[in-house]
UniProtKB/TrEMBL annotation:
Pfam families: SRPRB. GO terms for biological process: Golgi to plasma membrane protein transport; intracellular protein transport; protein localization to Golgi apparatus. It comes from Planoprotostelium fungivorum. It is a single-pass membrane protein. Mg(2+) binds at T59, S77. Gene3D superfamilies: P-loop containing nucleotide triphosphate hydrolases. Coiled coil: none annotated. GO terms for molecular function: GTP binding; GTPase activity; metal ion binding. Belongs to the SRP receptor beta subunit family. GTP binds at G52, L53, S54, D55, T56, G57, K58, T59, G99, N156, K157, S158, D159. This is Signal recognition particle receptor subunit beta. GO terms for cellular component: endoplasmic reticulum membrane; Golgi apparatus. The lineage of its organism: Eukaryota, Amoebozoa, Evosea, Variosea, Cavosteliida. It comes from the Eukaryota.
Length: 239
């Protein structure tokens, strides 16, 4: 074999090696982008989103967290409110997502980013059916369901004599979600990626926490400034 042939062979080998390394790098880059962009692998931000039906007192609780005193009378929000809240030496973004019907789905833009959600219900004037339907949408959203995003259900206005205790609301919600699951199995609603999440597999009754998603029930009163249980939950979440 002469020197020319050897040089050509070496050049061909170097080209093959270079092409192979380039292909590996491209495949690795694509795989990394795909993997990191999935809801399960994204690093969730230090953000907590308050959501729920209108007139449940979300904004009152939000203002109580922000201002640290009893809040004045509020009205149904049509825009979100945001502030940075210091929890255990960490700055956490608190979002008050509006409850008005036409902007109620604002919470969905946080499903791949928020570290946790707070779902507020009016314990004194509890709308079991509509609350359960809204909560079902939150719990069954694929990004929240797969990532097992923590959820705190706040039974607000607990200072009112006629308010339902959190244990009663929990039982009513489980019953309503079980019934809703039967309806949605018959008429499935597709979401992102055409994925349908069934909260009651094999037709079993719905039970909070059964799918390993952390769900905590607390009682509060934005009007009276009683948010200790919310503070405690947030402190544990960001400890």
């Amino acid at each position: 074999m002469d020197a020319t042939t050897t040089t050509e062979s070496d050049s061909s080998l170097l080209i093959i090696i270079a092409l192979t390394l380039t292909l590996i790098a491209v495949v690795g880059f694509i795989a990394k982008r795909f993997f990191l962009s999935s809801p399960e692998t994204q690093r969730r931000e230090d953000t907590v989103v308050f959501t729920g039906l209108s007139d449940t007192g979300k904004t009152s609780l939000f203002l109580q967290l922000r201002d640290g005193n009893q809040s004045t009378e509020t009205h149904t929000s049509i825009v979100e409110n945001v502030f940075d809240h210091k929890i255990n030496q960490k700055m956490v973004k608190i979002v008050d997502s509006p409850g008005a019907n036409r902007v109620r789905n604002n919470w969905m833009k946080y499903v791949n980013r928020a570290k946790a959600f707070v779902f507020v219900v009016d314990a004194a004037n509890y709308d079991s059916r509509n609350s359960a339907e809204f909560l079902y949408d939150v719990l069954s959203h694929p990004s929240i369901f797969r990532a097992k995003v923590p959820l705190c259900i706040v039974c607000n206005k607990s200072d009112i004599v006629t308010a339902h205790p959190s244990s009663s609301i929990k039982t009513q919600m489980e019953r309503e979600i079980t019934q809703l699951s039967k309806t949605r199995r018959a008429f499935p609603q597709q979401t992102e990626g055409n994925e349908v999440v069934n909260l009651c597999p094999q037709g079993q009754p719905f039970v909070f926490g059964k799918n390993e998603q952390p769900v905590t029930f607390v009682e509060a009163s934005g009007k009276e400034g009683n948010i200790q249980e919310i503070d405690s939950w947030l402190s544990k979440l960001f400890q």
